[in-house]
Amino acid sequence: MSLLRTACTLTLLLAASAALAAPAAGAAAPAGTASRPGEPEVRRVVLEDDAVRIEELRVRGQVQRITVTPKTAGTRPYEIVPADASRDASQTRGLAGQRVWNLFSF
User: Fold this and answer.
1) Contacts of the segment 95-100: beta carbons below 8 A, 24+ positions apart
2) Which one, of 28, 27, 66, lies nearest residue 44 by Cα?
3) Three-state SS for 80?
4) Residues 95, 56, 65, 75: what is their CA dihedral angle, to the nearest 10 degrees?
5) Which residue of 1, 63, 81, 96 has the smallest Cβ count within 10 Å?
6) Beta sheet of 99-100, edge-to-edge order
7) Among 9-18, 75-84, 86-95, which range has the highest average pLDDT?
């Protein structure tokens, strides 16, 4: 059941990230954001429910990192490799969409 809930949450995250696409170049910056010329827009999105916490990092509107932290005891957090937006998705056979675990941290 928790795997199904995680899959549903990830689907929700991907749908939300598509809805939060970067604004058009001519659009004004939202109030409260300090954008300096030459600095990339960095956005952190956190979705959380009873079973899992999902953190997404976007730079210039492109997903850079998705971290999933299950709340069940003894389960380690993992990352989902985002697809590279500069490549054709139909030609890619890489790790996009796959789960990866960090073995070592320093």
Assistant:
1) 99/68
2) 66
3) strand
4) -70
5) 1
6) 42-48, 52-59, 62-70, 78-80, 99-100
7) 75-84
Q: Closest Cα to residue 95, out of 79, 78, 83?
A: 83
- How far apart CA 34 and CA 77 sit, in angstroms, is 32
DSSP assignments along 22-42, one per residue = PPPTTSPPPTT----TTPPPE
pLDDT for the residue numbered 52: 95
Q: How many residues does the chain have?
A: 106
> How much is the pTM?
0.57
**Which ranges in 1-106 belong to alpha helices (H)?**
2-19
Task: Work out the mean pLDDT of the chain and round it to a whole number.
Answer: 73
